[in-house]
Amino acid sequence: MAAQRVVTTNINGTQKSFLCxxxxxxxxxxRDNLDLTGTKEGCSNxxxxxxxxxxxxxxxTSCLVLAVECEGAEIETIEGVAxxxxxxxxxxxxxxxxxxQCGVCTPGFIMSTKAMLRENPNPTEEEIRFYLAxxxxxxxxxxxxxxxxQDAAQRQCGTACSNET
Length: 165
Ligand code: FES
Ligand code: FES
Known about the structure:
Distance between the termini: 58 Å
CATH superfamily of the largest domain: Beta-grasp domain
Largest sheet: 5 strands, mixed
Bound molecules: FE2/S2 (inorganic) cluster
Strand order of the largest sheet: 2-1-5-3-4
Structural class: alpha+beta
CATH architecture of the largest domain: Roll
Radius of gyration: 16 Å
């Protein structure tokens, strides 16, 4: 076994140091070392988006990021999306629009949606489909996910966005 390294990050707003081997991915460390199992493993080769987390605010497939690369980084995972007051608007929107079935893809979609709405609070359907093209879903057929993302944008942006269109 290779020598373990200490990596210090901020995960969901909390300073976190962990030990990992240089070969371990961020996905492995989140799930196996830190018990943050909300981030899902689908393909493990960068194709499905199920493992998406935000690294310094940008969506990444955590199966393609080495944990040692995350020294000093801010990481956001699905566990940090809800607040003590309850689910976040994007989570409510996915639930109320029936945008999930098995749910394996859902954490990745929600993290990508959060990143997109920070960059573009009022995306068009085409922009949503383009931004989320790296997140695959085998169950829903995507339309309900698009509805949920549009709903989430409205919930977060409200009348300001309605008045733009
Ligand atoms: S598990 Fe990472 S992209 Fe599929
Ligand atoms: S809800 Fe099953 S893969 Fe998307």
